[in-house]
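hey can u run this one w/ nicotinamide-adenine-dinucleotide bound, need the structure tokens asap thx
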Amino acid sequence: MADYKLLIDGELCEAASGDTFATYNPGKGEKIADLPKAGKEDAERAIKAARKAFDEGPWPKMSGAERAGKLREIAALINANAGVLAELESLDSGGTIRKSSLADVPGAAGAFEWFATCAETEADRVQLPPAVFPQSDNYALYEPLGVCTGVIPWNFPFIMLSWKIAPALAAGNVSVIKPASLTSITALKLAELITEAGILPPGVLQVLSGPGGTVGEELASNPMVDKVAFTGSTEVGRRIMQLASGTVKPVTLELGGKSANIVLDDADLHQASSAVLWGTFFHGGQVCESGTRALVHKKIYDEFMNMLVEKAGKLVIGDQLDFTTDLGPLVDRSQAETAERYVKLGRDEVGDPVCGGDYPAALAEGLDRQAFFQPTIFSNVPNSAKIAQEEIFGPVLCVIPFESDDEAVAIANDSIYGLAGGVQSSNLERAQAVAARMRTGTVWINDYHMISPDKPFGGYKQSGIGRELGTYGYNIYRQVKHVHVNPETSGFANHLQYSALNGDLIA
Ligand code: NAD
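ok here u go:
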């Protein structure tokens, strides 16, 4: 028996096969729980239940204000259980308790609050100017899409969950969600809380823990699904797009990144080095929009590097449940091995890193050293190096020198990705001019990682399609229908009509 249950059609249940899989605390390598391993059969049942809830149930017919009320109940439930959720999130994902309690859990509640506001304030009907002839009444109706599925990654499991569920439900859709196998607990826990509180009608939300290759593929390809939203690697994003194309489903893709954080020669070096440090090593670099390429002006390069390396040496590596820890374990040993592999490649490509480059020398007893990795900085990296082009998803920073703003922009844009970036400068006008030329979905000036539910987020180029969050992130969950009304019920004012068949035209 699993310790947590799937949510299908309003019921908490085991997988049809009865199969389970274990989930671990990567910091200690200890098992936390057994989770139900959903398969294709469960995915099909979940989609069918969602279809029925959309086609026959009350949810899509409720007013935006009524749905907003339900979303706010979910936000309140998250806040009421914040401690438990934050601890589970940290245990399961390796993210620090500081991150889960100050960013993930309140961030998820904030997403439900924001999309509740959208449901109340974004119009369902917008009047349009008359079409073709002045008597006509024209308007646009905004309607839910239907069954919306979400497939999410392991790096920000709880926030990603909220980014998929909240806008879909707010707009009147029903949802089927698959969390990543490494980090499914908080999704299942939220499903349990919502079900026990009786907030949603049956079939409005389904949560399935299970493998991407079966459950994820079904959610992306099943003909009863109307939209797929995916966050994860660019490689799997391509696969999702292919699967969705079979029935021409709209897709939202939030994919990988290799973002540039540009330090101009007029930057305050203390602030800029902290922004670069935080931009890269937050959550051990397992952040899609991490500033893993720091572009630093040659004039300030040496002084900046000294400060950066000194600060990196002070980061505290340890148990993710300790509030003073800066870097917990990576999500599992294999992610630490990926960092190790890229560091080896970096040594071949550009020489030894100026700091880090290995598993930590010593850790408190009971911690699994093989799941942790030191903050690592490579200096004087050519942008063409593989370590500067490929997403590592670990605590590895490439510092790249430049000599002019034009060169910095060219280097920043020389990437297949375009998710985010930063500009550090004391001249806000100059920084904004640089930001305007960066081909990327978000730019933070004199800061980093400032994401909020009311601001659009998403990528250019191979970092994705579409934007989540903001009002844009609400409207991608709505269809728009144009209605044209000829107020004359016994004649056409449209001169394109066949007059001989339809009688006199109205002047
Ligand atoms: P991943 O692509 O391996 O997996 C993401 C999800 O897809 C998981 O739930 C997985 O089970 C599922 N999946 C795997 N194969 C599938 C298939 N064939 N069909 C359907 N679903 C399948 O990504 P990950 O390793 O979990 O997460 C890390 C990646 O996510 C990084 O590339 C990172 O940049 C990206 N990411 C992007 C954003 C963003 O907003 N742009 C945010 C977070 C993470």
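The radius of gyration is 25 Å. anyway lmk if its weird
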